[in-house]
Amino acid sequence: MPELPEVETIRRQLEQKAVGEVINKIEILEPKMFIGDPKDVIGSRITGVGRAAKVLRIRLANGAALLAHFKLNGQFFWRAAGDNTPARFTRAIFYFESGARLLFNDSRKFGWIKAIADFKDDPGAAIEPFRPNFTLQNFSSILGKSRKPIKLLLMDQEKIGGIGNIYANESLFAARVSPFRPANSLDQKEVKKLFNSIVGVLKRAIDCRGSSGKDEWYRQLDGSPGCYQDHFLVYQRTGRECSVCGAKIVRQTQAGRGTFFCPQCQK
User: For residue 157, how many other CB atoms are within 10 A of its CB?
Assistant: First the structure.
């Protein structure tokens, strides 16, 4: 599932390509994946592209917005005017006045696009990396109130927005914290180290334009993969040597998801 770095990469690329474009037409190929009335956005100019956690927010001059969530393997592909290259699993196509197109793809049909006529840019209640509310104090408070395993808490979108399985695993390794520990068992030194690790890992992943690991569908707007998978230290590295101590990376199932960790480094 695309996480904060992947969605932020698409946001930045869409901002460069789509701002100023006027939506002429929307072809909806999978009706259940488009929520709302297309008429609310057709004919309006795109003025900005934002993001809240894993949700893209495409703002329009008429006060409306298009929200998009990629879920497990949704994709956006940009096609310049005159480029009629098709893509597999296309579920909606946005046609622009300039002749360019934006394709929304999703093989498993879990993603969605929502048209909202009168959009209010509510950031939501969760704290989120790179937003002003992501402070050490707020982060520490959330961890101190929960006995949930720390990895699962990091992935709880109602508490902390944007972090999924990839970056929870990588951040916990960077902080040398076991993914299975109760969140409130971390002392203040460990909390601070984890806080800084999350920010550092996410920044590096954004610099790499996201992760396209094995079995991952994430692609950039031009169809190319990200490159942070080349820097994974535990995620999808089962049985390989830890880069710090040489022990074998272990994979265990935790709440239905694969958890990757070093049993020697992460305590």
Answer: 15
Regions in the chain scoring below 50 on pLDDT: none
**37-52 burial by CB neighbour count: b if 16+ within 10 A, else e?**
ebebbbebbbebbebb
Q: Catalytic one among 54, 59, 159, 209?
A: 54
With beta carbons less than 8 A apart as the criterion, state whether 64 and 116 touch: yes
- Whether 257 is a known active-site residue: answer yes
User: In one letter, which amino acid is 207?
Assistant: D
Q: Does residue 12 have an active-site annotation?
A: no
Respond yes or no: is residue 3 known to be catalytic: yes
Q: What is the C-alpha to C-alpha distance for residues 100 and 95, in angstroms, rounded to an integer? A: 6
- Looking at residue 124, its pLDDT comes to 78
Domain covering 136-261 in this structure, CATH number: 1.10.8.50
CA distances to 169, 173, 201, 203 from 207, rounded to whole Å, are 18, 19, 10, 6
Fold of 4-116: N-terminal domain of MutM-like DNA repair proteins (3.20.190)
In terms of Cα–Cα distance, which of 175, 197, 194, 184 is closest to 141?
A: 184
